[in-house]
């Protein structure tokens, strides 16, 4: 009997030992695995870092209104230095004045859009037909100069408050794509440093809200002189400039009951 108990006891010991040795390699292998995983993680991080960077590249749209002007060439040179792309919303008389600059904008791969003729609130927004006429005149001139037919438009001073529903419908039914902005550089009123600061601050706000920044700037010398600082910031912070395409979904201000006819102001 004692022998039997001893035998069972020894048997248990053998089984226990076998079990414990079975689990040990598992632990070891999981450790090895986790080490492997660790090293492959670090390898993956290394190899994928550049790819992730590409995926994470944030888009930004640079837009320049009121050109072409004597500053356009400087703007184009700076954009070229940074391999950046932009969209120019141009005035019809200025296009007629400097057709070679309009062609240069297109040759350098930027987008072109229409900003009307008079840039005068009382003329442009007088009626649906006056707004449409200014835009189509600008469209025809652009096409005559460059052969490019653009449907991208930005109305003077933006679409709010004077572009009421009926104006929007007329422009829309004629195939025009209305573009406002969500970053106002205020480069027409601020000094160079102030305009850069205000743009960067608003870009960060838009990005934090998950919105693609669309920056309103003007085709003017002060803006041109400090554009490289803005482009350096964008490049350092992982932004990629893109031009607006005909099929890009347009961004418009919302009226929120703020839109009204120009005549009600008078
Ligand atoms: Zn303008």
Automatic annotation (TrEMBL):
GO biological process terms on file: carbohydrate metabolic process
Signal sequence extent: 1-20
Keyword Signal: yes
Keyword Nucleotide-binding: no
Compositionally biased residues, Basic and acidic residues: 34-53
UniProt keyword terms in alphabetical order: Signal
Domain NodB homology positions: 58-242
Domain of life: Bacteria
Alphabetized GO MF terms: hydrolase activity, acting on carbon-nitrogen (but not peptide) bonds
Matching PANTHER family: GLYCOSYL TRANSFERASE-RELATED, POLYSACCHARIDE DEACETYLASE YHEN-RELATED
Protein name: Peptidoglycan/xylan/chitin deacetylase, PgdA/CDA1 family
